[in-house]
Amino acid sequence: MNHSAKPDWLATLPENVVETARPDGASAILLVCEHASRFIPEGLGNLGLDAAAAQSHIAWDPGALALAKRLSEALDATLIAQKVSRLVYDCNRPPDSAEAVRAESEVYHIPGNAGLSAAERDKRTDYIYRPFQKALAAAVQTRPHRVLVTIHSFTPVYNGVPRAVEVGILHDSDRRLADAMLNAAVQDPAYNVQRNAPYGPEDGVTHTLREHALPRGLLNVMIEVRNDLLADEAGVTAMAAWLHARLKSALAALAGAPR
To answer: What per-residue confidence (pLDDT) applies to 6?
Structure first.
């Protein structure tokens, strides 16, 4: 990777594209927020989007970082978060995925991502995806984390269709923690909770779980929260408390399960 001649947009990247909160957290849980930021570096011209689109749910997961930080505090858990918009590079997608750098998202066309050269795509991979993956791998490998939990939010209306689901509990081939959380959700049915909704592994959304949890046998789950429930402090507080309780209950049940 040649760092000697950075294009303009790279010069306006944060010095570190990864935010790490509570690096010495005592919890066995490692929290991840891949879509934490809507930051688009200068020089990319907002990727050709108007201000409203560049700040909308296509650019990030509104409320997800606030929720992840609240859980990090409650659990004393390390949190790894991305500081660049997923429209520049989606860190929950591998480099060979067409969705890593989207030219279309829901009803939006993203001109700045259309027709990218292989070299330009590689720059985004090298400067955004790879540092994030390196930081996440280091957090997994250097501390005895046994549980990987990724935090996301989703829009209440997608392609004009309202979504009834409020909390999605997502899993790939390892469903242990998802099953336990779904069982725990029955104890306090405050939200409409569904398995692998509004997305599932067939939609390519479990890359982080596949890359870092499945090969190591770590307990893992992806949590999706409808973003209207995270629109204010009260909503974030309520959801964090509910998820905290569900995680604790699920992990306690798994600890007591026969091996």
So the answer is: 46
